[in-house]
Amino acid sequence: MEDLVIIGTGLSAKQVYDFIELHNLYNVIGFAIDSQYIMENTFLGFPIFELETLKERIDIKKTKIFVSLGWNHLNADRRKLYERLKKERYLFANLVSPLAILKGNVNGDNCWINDYAVLQSDVSIKSNVIIRESVLIGNGTVINEHCFIGVHSVVGGGSNIGEQSFIGMRGTVFDGTIVGKK
């Protein structure tokens, strides 16, 4: 099982950790945040690493990371941190539930596909996307970078969801809809 460091120590990080443990996806070895935000040495019983020196603590060619920030500021905070760490050449994990149905493709990294999500044929999921529980993504849809799709949402076939977009809980996007950036 591959080692993983979760980036973040908030509610989203706890949800990511619980998801990983439930489905036995990775061996979590710790959490990491910028040193200015560290208030304690551990989170959920694991060490908290300083993000600025994480490369000195892990083998970045083997250990993966997952940026666990949520949808705040139209996903801008998660995007900024993801892009910063991408430039530093970290390996990102995808968290895909074994209870999800994937007929389409997760083409990016740092994606979280939750329980009972359904990606129909020819769906393309780009990097840094969160798809919550029981979401249906219709045939031929493209979900661009840094998007968040809330629980029980439906995105109709042939749609294109622009980067950094947010679709809230139980949101419905009709077939063939183009949603612009943000």
Output the keywords:
single chain; 182 residues; alpha/beta; 6-stranded mixed sheet; 5-stranded parallel sheet; 21 strands; 16% helix; globular
Total number of helices: 3
Strand arrangement within the widest β-sheet reads: 3-4-2-1-5-6
What summary fits the major beta sheet? 6 strands, mixed
Order of helices and strands: EHEEEHEHEEEEEEEEEEEEEEEE
Helix/strand-derived class? alpha/beta
Which regions contain 5 or more consecutive residues with pLDDT less than 50? Answer: none
Percent strand equals 25-35%
The overall strand count is 21
Distance between the termini: 36 Å
Global geometry: globular
Query: What is the typical, i.e. mean, pLDDT?
Result: 95
* Helix content percent band: 10-25%
Please identify the oligomeric state: single chain
Query: Could you tell me the radius of gyration in angstroms?
Result: 16 Å
Question: What report would you give on this structure?
Answer:
This protein has 182 residues and is of the alpha/beta class. It is built from three helices and 21 strands. The strands form four sheets. It has a six-stranded mixed beta sheet. Strands 7-10-13-16-19 form a five-stranded parallel beta sheet, with no helix packed on it. A five-stranded parallel beta sheet has the order 8-11-14-17-20, with no helix packed on it. Strand 3 and strand 4 form a beta hairpin. It is globular. The model has no long low-confidence stretch (mean pLDDT 95).
